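Changelog entry: the Glutathione peroxidase record was regenerated in this release. Current contents:
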Amino acid sequence: MSIYHFEVKKANGQTISLSDYKGKVLLIVNTASKCHFTPQFQDLQKLYEKYRDHHFEILGFPCNQFGEQEPGSNEDAVAFCQLNYGVTFPIFAKVEVNGDNAHPLFQYLKKNAPFRGFDETNPTAKILKLMILDKAPEWLVGDEIKWNFTKFLIDQNGNVIRRYEPNEEPVDFEKDIAELLASQMQNH
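Regenerated structure tokens:
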């Protein structure tokens, strides 16, 4: 099984298959407009602009499960990203990523890229862990997504390669994306 078996809804409600992205390296992100990590949209957009012509795509999924940081409609989420950060990569309909109503895609992502723990030498990771402990301790258990801006790297065959926690900035893992894209070029 790969991510290509899943369907998702665009912000306008239209259902699409993730098989539409076959052959591309993907970064799947749960996003929010009112989050401490929201400025990551800027660096995500830079990554997208740099690599989109090399079979790379970012898929954003707004989520309101963490501190109600995405309270508006699907259209509000898309407009916010475009107006404030110039986002041109796709922003889909809002989803839940944890709990009984978690979207099947995110259930699959969590299962295939388990939580590896927080790097407590990173001050932001330490603060994030304390914040989650205070606001939503249930998210600290197991492989649940810990907060907005958890990112999953998917290879060109739809396999989950790696999970990056919210405190991991796009510049920190750009090399992983570049390596996957380079290996893709060698195989063609």
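The first strand starts at residue 7 and ends at 9.
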